[in-house]
Design goal:
By secondary structure, the protein is of the alpha/beta class. The protein is built from 5 helices and 7 strands, in the order ββαββαβαβαβα.
Length: 189
């Protein structure tokens, strides 16, 4: 799989026709500061596709990117951002839940991005449970493997597999783009 064309379409904060317009969707979800936007930029080979900030919590709406004139990459807000107010955290969680459960969106695959260094958090375990209950096809990207040793990465991947069951886990680094061709093939297979 090669991404040759990509463009931002829109960001939404609730009901919108784009969620069920018939275009296949690949949704990216994960904790704040896990590198979802950086991952989307690496996949599209564009440093400016998804907004990346120095502070976590930059994504506050559901962003749709039209790729190869064929499908959407959907960047969901991050969950678990500690510096946001409880009201802001609740609002973002509600938006994520709405997309995954009530919006009418039927993503072909959900990509759960987990920080390899941090490991599986309680928030990630909750998301795995939701994805499983809603019967979403999903995989895990073990991001930021460049920040830990190979031994630590292997242990982190084992932990992710134990938490998620029979789910594909791909180690990745948005910075070095380690495993990019493999990741593209797995996501879009």
């Amino acid at each position: 799989m090669e991404i040759t064309r990509s463009q931002f379409v829109k960001g939404i904060r609730g009901t919108d026709a784009i969620t069920d317009d018939g275009v296949p969707q690949y949704a990216f979800v994960g904790r704040s500061n896990v590198g979802k936007s950086s991952l989307i930029n690496a996949l599209t080979d564009r440093s400016d596709m998804a907004r990346v900030g120095k502070k976590p919590g930059k994504t506050t709406e559901i962003n749709f990117f039209f790729v190869n004139n064929a499908f959407y990459l959907v960047d969901l807000p991050g969950y678990g951002y500690a510096r946001a107010t409880p009201q802001e955290r609740a609002k973002l969680k509600k938006l994520i839940m709405w997309y995954l459960t009530y919006s009418g969106a039927k993503p072909k695959k959900v990509i759960l991005v987990v920080d390899s260094k941090v490991g599986v958090t309680d928030f990630d375990r909750d998301m795995i449970m939701i994805l499983t209950e809603e019967k979403h096809s999903f995989m895990i990207v073990a991001n930021k493997v460049d920040k830990i040793t190979q031994k630590e990465a292997a242990a982190s991947i084992v932990e992710m597999r134990e938490a998620a069951g029979d789910v594909t886990v791909v180690p990745f680094s948005s910075r070095t783009r380690k495993n990019l061709p493999q990741l593209l093939d797995i996501i879009f297979s």
